[in-house]
Amino acid sequence: MRHVLYAAMTALLLAPAATALHAQTAGTTTTIGVSVVEMNDVVNGWSVQRQLLGQPVYNDKDEKIGKIEDIILNKERSASYGIVSTGGFLGLGAHDVAIPAKQLQMKNERLMLPSASKETLRAMPTFEYARK
Fold first, then answer.
1. pLDDT tens column, 87-96
2. How far apart are CA 24 and CA 125, in angstroms?
3. What residues pair up with 97 in beta bridges, in sequence order?
4. At what angle do helices 2-18 and 36-44 cross, to 10 degrees?
5. Which one has a higher pLDDT value, 15 or 38?
6. Do residues 82 and 114 both lie within one domain?
7. More exposed terminus of the chain, fewer Cβ within 10 Å: N or C?
8. Looking at the domain assignment, is residue 34 inside a domain?
9. 3-state secondary structure of 62
């Protein structure tokens, strides 16, 4: 079933690629979208929303200590921090903290934050987005 879904999605996404879109600015032409070759990377790529956001975070004692709420990118577009939420119910009373991405590890299909606990996360400063 998964292969059929990928095939259907590929066919759907490749249809517009046959009629490439071009953006023109004074003397230049820029192709918008992905090529047929790039589409393979897109279809087989890793999705932050599907495979990371909302996923539980465990410590090295296999205790669930929180979940990933957001990923913060730096100017180079690399993941620099994971926003981990602990406590609360349906988003109420939750305590969000920023964890450097290099401290988060993927082991046995689980996101791990070694040596952490709910208490250590609650003791950290609360993460809040900057107001614009």
1. 876 667 789 9
2. 48
3. 84
4. 150
5. 38
6. yes
7. C
8. yes
9. coil
Query: Does residue 37 lie in a domain region?
Result: yes
Say how many domains are in the chain: 2
Q: Indicate whether 111 and 56 sit together in one domain.
A: yes
Q: pLDDT tens across 51-85, in order? A: 788 999 999 999 999 999 999 999 988 889 999 99
**CB atoms inside a 10 Å sphere around CB 131:** 4
Q: The tokens of 107 are what? A: 């082991």
Question: What does the alpha-carbon distance between residue 84 and residue 62 come to, in Å, rounded to a whole number?
Answer: 16
| Antiparallel, parallel or unpaired: β 56-58 and 110-112 | parallel
Give me the domain span that covers residue 109: 49-123
Cβ burial of 84 (10 Å; 0-12, 13-18, 19+) is buried
Instruction: Give the pLDDT band (50/70/90) at residue 122.
Output: very high
CB 101 within 8 A of CB 47: no
